[in-house]
Each structure stands twice: as structure tokens, then as C-alpha cells.
Amino acid sequence: MAENHPALTAGRVAVVTGAASGIGLAAAKRFASLGMKVCITDVAEDALAAAADEVAGLAGGGADDVLAAAVDVGDLAAMETLKDWVDERFGDVAVLMNNAVIRLDAPTTEGSENWRRTMEVNFFGVVNGVHAFVPAMIARGEPAIVINAGSKQGITNPPGTKPAYNVAKAAVISYTESLQHELRNTDGCQVTAHLMVPGWTTTGGREHQPGAWLPDQVIDYLLAAIGNGDFYVICPDGEVSPEEDRRRILWAAGDIVENRPPLSRWHPAYAEAFETFEP
Ligand SMILES: NC(=O)c1ccc[n+]([C@@H]2O[C@H](COP(=O)([O-])OP(=O)(O)OC[C@H]3O[C@@H](n4cnc5c(N)ncnc54)[C@H](O)[C@@H]3O)[C@@H](O)[C@H]2O)c1
How many folded domains does the chain comprise? Predict the structure, then answer.
């Protein structure tokens, strides 16, 4: 079992976006259980208030250790104000988890509004979180972590009604890789970035299905991986093993180097080749 990262220490401060539900709420509860002070943000105000009670029930200092703020991650000015509130109430941030998400239908040829909103929340929400909080985390000179939520859909790009979600997640992956490169090349910087890629996880009030993971399993896996110093945290689930993820990722990369059609995994002419593909 890996040790917890030094950022995950009692008395230090965690900020989690999209924390009224699912993986964000499970993370906030875990951070509170570790004795951290926790700022939770979301746009779903009723759910946020209920989440604040749950998190406070686990925090060492109860409600005094929890700040709940209804903030839209797509709004940079609001995220900067949030940073000021966290400073005033708790002090320096050790953990920033950019986790908020929307899942809008947006076919490739229409639905500009849904495309823009998806990018605003799912991609710029991450960028805004980093811009608002990370310069001060670097300047503090203590170990700190940024966790950005990606998705396997941003890697393998499955077809469906939500290509905007895939595009935004692909952008989050590319952005987080660049962020980590910059952080490790910044003198004296003790901040590291990590890409959390959950598998199939029951969230948002959906009924738990066999094969899905629960949010707590994702958090267990995430914290162990961060304790190991991993950047890519690709969570399996009850249906997809790490080996199967590896196979799917390598097949997707193979579309380019083998000059196959894009998304060939879902192309009938390649069905058998994918089925029997062994990297
Ligand atoms: N659940 C899965 O199977 C799964 C799989 C792969 C990746 N992920 C990723 O993990 C992360 C967490 O997923 P989840 O399923 O726990 O999410 P969820 O849907 O349970 O919760 C997302 C939260 O974000 C909030 N939110 C939406 N717009 C917001 C905004 N503009 N500002 C602030 N908050 C906002 C929502 O109100 C909601 O409470 C997401 O980034 C998601 O893409 C989840």
C-alpha cells in the first residue's frame, strides 16, 4: 500500500470542483477524513449544501473545516474570487482537484451552444482552476498536487452522441501533460499534476450496475497512484482490466501509425483485427 502524498496531510487545504456528487464528493469526504480542510464547489446548490453536511460530518473541525461555494468553474473571475475566499478562510492550498463536468449531446455538425458550454465547463473549468490557484501553490514552495479529471473517452474517442465531451477530455489530457512538464521544469516547484482517468463509475444518482466501480474505489486507486508518483492514473473497473485498457489505447494510437481509418475499433472492416489484436 503506497504512502499518502505529503500534500494529503491533516491541517492542509483541498479544493474540489464538482464536489456535490460522485467522484468529487467521495474525494472531498476522503480529504476531510484525512483531517484536511476542504473547499467544495458546485453549481447544484441544494446538492452542494447536502454535500457540505456530509463532508463536515467527517472533518476534524466539523463545519469549521468546510467551505461550500456555489461557483461555476467556467467563470475565471468567479474562480479567482473563490481563491481569495479559500485564502481568507483556510490559507494555502495543497490539493486542487478539477473534477466538475457536464455531459451534453452535441453531434459534430450542429449544436454550437452545447459545444461551447461543454468546452467552457469541461476544458476551461480545468484551465481556470489552474490559473486561479496554481501560481500561489508554486510560490508557497511546499508539496502540493493538482488532479485533473480526464476520461478514457479523451484517449480512445468512442463514437456516440457526445463527441464534445471526448474533445474536451482530449484537451484536458493534452493540457495536463503540458502543465506537468512546466511544473517539473520550474525551479523550486514542489507542485505536481496528475491525470485521473476513472473507468465506469456509478455516480449522479444512477443505479449501481454489476461491473461498475463506486466512487470510493476510484479515490482509493487515485491516492495509491499519487502516492507512487504516477502521472497517468487510468482506473480499471469490474469489466475493463488494465491490460484491456492498454490494448484499446495502443489500438487507438495504431490508427495513425498503421494508416487505418479513425475510430477503426468501431469500423466493421476492422472488427476482427481489433478482436484478435495483441499488443
Ligand atoms: N462516472 C464515470 O463513469 C466517469 C468516467 C470517466 C470520467 N469521469 C470523470 O470524472 C469526473 C467526475 O465524474 P462524476 O461522474 O463523479 O460526475 P457527476 O456528474 O457525479 O458530478 C459532476 C458535478 O459537477 C457539477 N458541475 C457541473 N457543471 C459545473 C460547473 N459549471 N461548475 C461547477 N460544478 C459543475 C455537477 O453539478 C455535478 O455535481 C468528471 O470529470 C468525469 O468526466 C467519470
Answer: 2
Cα(18) to centroid of ligand 1, in Å? 6
Helices 124-140 and 163-184: crossing angle in degrees, nearest 10, is 20
Residues 235 and 249 occupy one common structural domain: no
- Look up the domain containing 248 and give its range: 241-279
The answer to whether the CB of 16 is under 6 A from ligand 1 is no
Tell if the pTM clears 0.90, that is, is over it. yes
Q: Tens place of pLDDT for every residue, the chain, 279 residues?
A: 456 899 999 999 999 999 999 999 999 999 999 999 999 999 999 999 999 999 999 999 999 999 999 999 999 999 999 999 999 999 999 999 999 999 999 999 999 999 999 999 999 999 999 999 999 999 999 999 999 999 999 999 999 999 999 999 999 999 999 999 999 999 999 999 999 999 999 999 899 999 999 999 999 999 999 999 999 999 999 999 999 999 999 999 999 999 999 999 999 999 999 999 999
Contact 204 CB / ligand 1 (< 6 Å): yes
Ligand 1 pocket residue status of 44, Cβ below 6 Å: yes
In testing the pocket of ligand 1, which one of 203, 209, 245 has its CB within 8 Å of the most ligand atoms?
203
SS3 257: helix
In this structure, the answer to whether residues 135 and 173 fall within a common structural domain is yes
Q: Are residues 138 and 226 in the same domain?
A: yes
How would DSSP label each residue in 176-210?
HHHHHHHHHTSTT--EEEEEEE--SB--TTPPP-T
